[in-house]
Specification:
- The complex is a heterodimer of chains A (294) and B (302).
- Chain A has 294 residues and is mainly α.
- In chain A, 78% of the residues lie in helices and 0% in strands.
- Chain A contains 14 helices and no strands.
- In chain A, helix 6 runs antiparallel to helix 8 (181-195), helix 6 runs antiparallel to helix 9 (199-205) and helix 11 (225-236) packs antiparallel against helix 14 (258-293).
- Chain B has helices spanning 2-22, 27-46, 53-69, 76-89, 93-106, 111-127, 131-144, 149-164, 168-188, 193-208, 212-225, 232-249, 254-266, 273-301.
- In chain B, helix 3 runs antiparallel to helix 4 and helix 9 packs antiparallel against helix 10 (193-208).
- The radius of gyration of chain B is 28 Å and the shape is extended.
- The mean pLDDT of chain B is 91.
- The chains are: A mainly alpha (294), B mainly alpha (302).
- At the A-B interface, helix 2 of A face helix 1 and helix 2 of B.
Chain lengths: 294, 302
């Protein structure tokens, strides 16, 4: 797997790079397998949460749900109102402790394929685990930054909600910032991902520790900020249909179980987006390094 | 790769099927099944006159099958009540009452369910404009389930029924009977939640009779005897009523001012004291304004 050295070479063109990343992903099972495991793991968590209001899991989850939220959520169909929230809370530790590690594994696999080496899953796991602490810290820092950006947006949202105008430009501002909240949050999470785009690839590929990786990340980022931004932004647009569907509440009134279908779709889309982004970023990083050495 | 994906799918299916099978005779399954039937009922209830009998009968059969299958479930009584309501919507009031009566008999030891069944029987009489039988139901709730929320309100509801038919004589008589009834409960159950509720309902009766002073004194009684006996919403409602009646009906600013001042002295650490201090200041300002207005009016009238 080597990049083409022509005007349409992946390191010059975002679409070419993304196309290359998708091809690489689906043609090399050693890169795809960790993400498939991630999908399975998240689906398993979702399944456990779905059954958390039913015997026998209710014995464990019931008192917790009753205390933190309400006893009402232990009954059909109100459990489907709580399910997305509970799943979202589990996503935070999953992202920090599992997803980031999976991404690290996939990046290592990509490096080995690029070097023409054989990919052994057990050795890959062991090698990636050697950087586990740094990967987790990187994911945690990135998560904190994104949450901080969400909080900042929350202040803007609260201020917009206080606008009392029902017509004119202020009303328009209110509509944009209140009803556009999910899309602004998506943009902020894209910005958060861009800011720390190369940290995990650097930790895994250059075997750097967390803080050196962050410094190198910003050096790489400033030399190609907009290219990196588009690599992250374009695949993330795949999440927009999910947001549009989520805001269509009539679906839940037809059948509350559709909430679960939405969450399953969200899992597949999010893992796919992460897979493309990090495959593309790592490919770009490796190609840049090759070019620098030449 | 295919083997891996199939393994993952297998694990997910095994976990799902296993957990589903472990949950036999489940409340959750009963709730889900009832929700589905209720959705059918909600559809036909939107415009019952446009719905053919066959559709009603199919919903009735669904409820009957549900009751048979999920008789073990805690939610099963709700299905029986919904069955009665289908007959109500179908305007088969006799059959509806038959179903509700059976529920009231079967669950006579469960006041929540039994009272709901009786309320639905009452509703059938409301739809038939049969006040005589509606009154009988009110009295039945009051006699058989006196300490339920509805049971406590029934004496007041009887008075409201007479008022709605402009039977002011009967309404006043019912209010007097209600006041006597609540006074009896106050004596019988001192220092209890029943006494608090009885005091509040008695005050409401005084309001309905336009006996403003008695109403305000009773509300003040509730607050002073039970400073922590009510939730925040009820307490705010009592304070608002005291202020409104004192100012609008009795035109007496000193009544609430003196009451709040006494309350603060009697309950020095009460969380509402800050509110009462602000109220005292506001009431004194309003009293000043009112006196000034009177003074400016009096010279012209002389």
């Amino acid at each position: 797997m080597t990049a083409r050295r022509d005007n349409k070479s992946p390191e010059k063109n975002v679409f070419a790079l993304l196309g290359f990343a998708i091809n690489t992903l689906f043609q090399n099972k050693s890169i795809l397998q960790p993400f498939i495991f991630l999908i399975f793991f998240q689906l398993l968590i979702l399944e456990i949460l779905y059954f958390s209001v039913r015997f026998p899991l209710k014995a464990f989850f019931g008192p917790m749900i009753g205390k933190i939220w309400s006893e009402a959520f232990l009954h059909y169909p109100f459990n489907f109102i709580l399910l997305p929230k509970m799943f979202q809370y589990t996503e935070f530790p999953i992202y920090i402790f599992v997803t980031s590690f999976i991404i690290g594994m996939a990046i290592l696999a990509l490096q080995k394929l690029n070097n023409g080496e054989e990919v052994n899953e057990k050795k890959l796991l062991k090698e990636a685990f050697g950087h586990y602490v740094h990967i987790v810290v990187a994911a945690f820092i990135s998560f904190i930054i994104v949450m901080a950006l969400f909080k900042l947006y929350g202040l803007v949202y609260d201020r917009a909600a206080m606008i009392r105008s029902t017509t004119g430009k202020f009303h328009l501002i209110k509509i944009i910032f209140t009803q556009g909240a999910p899309y602004f949050n998506l943009l902020l999470s894209i910005i958060g991902t861009v800011l720390f785009a190369y940290v995990i690839p650097i930790i895994v590929l250059e075997k750097k520790k967390i803080f050196s990786a962050i410094v190198l990340n910003f050096k790489n980022l400033f030399s190609s900020f907009w290219f990196t931004f588009w690599i992250v932004f374009l695949p993330s647009l795949l999440f927009v249909p999910i947001l549009l569907l989520r805001n269509t509440t009539f679906l839940e009134n037809i059948l509350p179980e559709l909430n679960v279908c939405m969450l399953v779709a969200t899992i597949f889309v999010m893992v796919f987006i992460d897979a493309i982004i990090y495959t593309a970023l790592s490919t770009y990083y490796l190609l840049k390094k090759e070019k620098e050495h030449k | 790769m295919k083997k891996l994906i199939l393994t993952y799918i297998g694990i997910l299916l095994a976990v799902g099927i296993g957990l589903d099978l472990a949950d036999q005779k489940s409340e959750y399954k009963a709730e889900r099944a009832l929700w589905s039937i209720n959705e059918h009922f909600a559809e036909i209830a939107k415009d019952p006159k446009a719905i053919p009998d066959a559709t009603f009968n199919s919903v009735i059969k669904e409820y009957e099958a549900y009751i048979k299958k999920y008789n073990y479930a805690k939610i099963s009584p709700a299905a029986k009540i919904y069955l009665g309501r289908v007959y109500l919507v179908k305007e088969n009031h006799d059959k509806a009452r038959e179903v509700f009566e059976q529920v009231a008999r079967e669950y006579k030891d469960n006041s929540e369910i039994a009272v709901q069944a009786l309320v639905d029987i009452g509703q059938s009489y409301v739809l038939q404009k049969d006040d005589a039988n509606l009154l009988k139901i009110y009295n039945r709730i009051k006699n058989e389930y006196p300490f339920t929320n509805l049971g406590m309100h029934t004496p007041l509801l009887i008075a409201q029924l007479h008022t709605s038919h402009n039977d002011l004589g009967l309404a006043n008589k019912a209010l007097d009977e209600a006041i006597a009834y609540y006074k009896e409960l106050i004596v019988k159950y001192p220092r209890s939640q029943l006494e608090i509720i009885s005091l509040r309902l008695m005050a409401t009766c005084y309001l309905a009779k336009r006996q403003w002073n008695d109403a305000v004194q009773t509300f003040m009684d509730v607050l002073s005897r039970y400073p922590n006996g009510q939730n925040s919403q009820d307490t705010k409602s009592v304070i608002r009523t005291i202020n409104t009646i004192s100012l609008m009906q009795l035109k007496d600013y000193d009544l609430p001012i003196n009451f709040y001042q006494k309350f603060i002295v009697d309950h020095p650490n009460h969380p509402y004291n800050v509110t009462f201090e602000k109220l005292i200041v506001k009431l004194k300002e309003l009293k000043e304004k009112s006196l000034q207005q009177k003074e400016t009016q009096e010279p012209t009238s002389k």
